[in-house]
Each structure stands twice: as structure tokens, then as C-alpha cells.
TrEMBL record:
InterPro entries: Tic22-like. The lineage of its organism: Bacteria, Pseudomonadati, Pseudomonadota, Gammaproteobacteria, Pseudomonadales. The keyword Metal-binding does not apply. It comes from Marinobacter xiaoshiensis. Residues 1-32 form the signal peptide. Keywords: Signal. It holds the Pfam family Tic22. This is Tic22 family protein.
């Protein structure tokens, strides 16, 4: 399964929300061995994804952006709904918007359930534009992940979980991480202006979790607001 698919499939408006309880700075934890694949999948499964399918579970076979064995996958349900409408205007019938989890998609289990169908995760244009700006790389073309780091130390901003452990929040929307930093600055004025936001390809984050450079148990994926 590919984490990336055709670009510019659909444009969408931004949704706004806040993440509270950002608190402590820590360096990313480096593990000495490869991570358990199930832990990686569990971390990714915090993110829902959406795609268009026929009642039988196969991809629509018509549409300029569609192939018989390929189905684009979206981080926003509204994007999938608009893709469904576009396909219906082109003559497709019996279509549904289906929901899955990113980890299930990435593991290949979803492909097994839908007769070997290939999936591609589509980058939202608004988030992709932000990643290009932050990375100063106009060739950035993948689904981006946004991380807050201290400008001087490079340490990653973490949040305290319900069990008291610390985890690094990895955001899939630029405005959510910016709003979270704004809220943090209100609660702790001495932190204002101390952080920078960096963008990384989702595939690189997943690779780091798989090879143990990033502990998936110390990661909290912050999904888009649907």
C-alpha cells in the first residue's frame, strides 16, 4: 500500500480546533531495536481515513482520477464525499463513503479485505502548501506531519497523557498545532515565541517508528477535525 496517491485530487477548507495540555520539552526517544509493528499500527490507528467504494467493496471504475485497481484515500470525510459526488456525476452508481483507520490501511489489511485493491493517501492541498512553506521545499509532495520544537534546544514539545506518561503530539493540520502553541503561550507566557513548527513526510515518520528511531508508544497522532 502506498501512503501517497495522485496530488491535487480535491481542495478543502480548514477546520479549527485546539489541543490542550501541551507541557514539557523532551528529545525524541531513540530505541536500540526495531519497533513492534503492532505498536506502529496502533499509533497510526488514531487517524481515521475515508475512501469511496462500491457496495461490493471495489473501487469505482470510471472517472478521470480513478483506476480500476486504485482508490484514493482522504484524511477528511468531506473530501471523500465530494469525490463520491464527482464520480456520480460521471455516471458511477451504488457508491458509499467508507471509513477505516490509517494503521489498518498502512498494514495492508484493508487491501486484503477489498480484493487486493491499491490505496493511495491524498495530501490535503492546504496542509501540503503549509509543509512546502515551512520546509522551504516546493518539491514536498507527501502527506505532511507537523511537529513543534524548541528553537534553541531542538527538543520536541510533549503532552502529558492520562496515565501520566509523556508523548510527542504529531499534528496532521498546521492550524491545530499553531492554535495549540497559541494556547500554550496564553497559559505560560514565558513560552511565547520559543517554538518553531517543522513539517515532515508522513512516510518518514512511519519509517522512523518502524526502525526504532521514534518510539510509537511515545507518539500521539493528532488527526484532522472532520
Amino acid at each position: 500500500m502506498s501512503l501517497n496517491g495522485p496530488k491535487d485530487f480535491y481542495t478543502t477548507t480548514m477546520r479549527r480546533s485546539l489541543l490542550a495540555c501541551l507541557c514539557i520539552l523532551l528529545p525524541m526517544t531513540t530505541q536500540a531495536q526495531t519497533s513492534d509493528q503492532s505498536a506502529v499500527i496502533k499509533a497510526l490507528n488514531a487517524v481515521p481515513v475515508y475512501f469511496v467504494a462500491t457496495a461490493s467493496g471495489s473501487a469505482p471504475s470510471i472517472g478521470a482520477q480513478q483506476q480500476a485497481d486504485f482508490s484514493p484515500v482522504f484524511l477528511y470525510s468531506q473530501e471523500a464525499k465530494i469525490a463520491k459526488t464527482e464520480l456520480e456525476h460521471e455516471g458511477a452508481t451504488g457508491l458509499n463513503v467508507e471509513r477505516a483507520e490509517l494503521g489498518v490501511l498502512y498494514s495492508g489489511e484493508l487491501s486484503k479485505k477489498t480484493k487486493g485493491l491499491k490505496y493511495g493517501l491524498i495530501a490535503n492541498p492546504t496542509q501540503l502548501a503549509a509543509a512546502k512553506r515551512l520546509s522551504a521545499n516546493q518539491n514536498f509532495s507527501e502527506v505532511p506531519v507537523f511537529i513543534a520544537k524548541h528553537k534553541n534546544s531542538g527538543e520536541v514539545l510533549t503532552l502529558k497523557q492520562s496515565d501520566g506518561t509523556l508523548a510527542a503530539p504529531l499534528f496532521l493540520e498546521i492550524h491545530r498545532i499553531e492554535a495549540a502553541l497559541d494556547e500554550l503561550a496564553k497559559q505560560a507566557p514565558n513560552t511565547a515565541g520559543n517554538f518553531t513548527v517543522e513539517a515532515y513526510p508522513l512516510s518518514a515518520i512511519v519509517n522512523d517508528m518502524q526502525r526504532g528511531a521514534l518510539n510509537p508508544e511515545n507518539v500521539v497522532m493528532i488527526p484532522p477535525v472532520n
